[in-house]
């Protein structure tokens, strides 16, 4: 069993690199070895490696910058996954891909289910949705794992941003009217390992069992606002007593990309199909 992992230096990719190796011969590539911004380079790499499974956490994730670089974001997040899937079909591989809560507009008052109609508000969300569609139409066994508010101890994420601001400022303002479920990258990787193990045990590649393919939501349980998340980061860093944390509305913190007010995802499907419970 040969497993190809892209984006090995990203938040989820780094955790996967440490976890999924026991399922087969793990081959990892970074941007230098497989550049998703260069579509013509994708198929030759896949045909050369001939993996049985491709895991693709690599993505263009700079949400605000995507508003300025829509073509690059579309290439990496939409065109590249489609080409990965087409190449996977040629070598008989299955594909695990990651998407985002930002495919929804956040107008719902309850957590989103997989079948809820998407309506992304920003370029990043639109490109990730286009990637989902391109992958799903390629005719390969696939899993699209939507997650959101991912954090880890490395890379660019909200947890590290707040910790850095706490070192530089006495007052931090954070929006309190966007709701989501902070999700540890390692939890996503651990659950991906469990899912892949089940798929392999059930001969997913051979049977192409449609019940094991499709879109699945995977986030940690609970909910909070960015302000609530920041408060917990400061509390756990033992710096809350030194920082004045101020809650503000999104309207007071304009950004190039519009964010959905509700990013909560419903995990019932992944629990039912794979028996997984998130922390």
Automatic annotation (TrEMBL):
One of its GO terms (molecular function) is dTDP-4-dehydrorhamnose reductase activity. One of its GO terms (cellular component) is cytosol. One of its GO terms (biological process) is dTDP-rhamnose biosynthetic process. Residues 1-278 form the RmlD-like substrate binding domain. This is RmlD-like substrate binding domain-containing protein. It comes from marine metagenome. The lineage of its organism: unclassified sequences, metagenomes, ecological metagenomes.
């Amino acid at each position: 069993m040969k497993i190809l992992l892209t984006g090995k230096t990203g938040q989820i990719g780094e955790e996967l690199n440490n976890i999924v190796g026991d399922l087969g011969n793990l081959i990892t590539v970074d941007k230098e070895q497989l550049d998703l911004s260069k579509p013509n380079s994708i198929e030759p790499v896949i045909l050369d490696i001939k993996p049985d499974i491709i895991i693709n956490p690599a993505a263009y994730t700079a949400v605000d910058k995507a508003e300025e670089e829509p073509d690059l974001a579309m290439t990496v997040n939409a065109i590249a996954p489609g080409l990965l899937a087409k190449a996977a079909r040629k070598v008989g591989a299955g594909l695990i891909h990651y998407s985002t809560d930002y495919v929804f507009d956040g107008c719902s008052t309850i957590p989103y289910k997989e079948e809820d109609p998407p309506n992304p508000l920003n370029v990043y969300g639109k490109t990730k949705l286009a990637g989902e569609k391109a992958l799903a139409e390629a005719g390969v066994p696939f899993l699209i794992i939507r997650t959101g508010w991912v954090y880890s101890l490395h890379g660019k994420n909200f947890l590290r941003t707040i910790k850095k601001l706490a070192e530089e400022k006495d007052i931090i303002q954070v929006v309190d009217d966007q709701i989501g479920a902070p999700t540890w990258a390692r939890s996503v990787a651990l659950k991906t390992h469990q899912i892949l193990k089940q798929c392999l045990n059930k001969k997913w590649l051979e049977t192409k069992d449609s019940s094991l393919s499709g879109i699945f939501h995977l986030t940690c349980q609970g909910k909070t606002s960015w302000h609530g998340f920041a408060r917990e980061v400061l509390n756990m860093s033992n710096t809350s007593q030194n920082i004045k944390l101020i809650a503000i509305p999104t309207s007071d913190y304009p950004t190039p990309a519009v964010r959905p007010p509700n990013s909560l995802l419903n995990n019932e499907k992944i629990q039912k199909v794979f028996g997984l419970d998130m922390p």
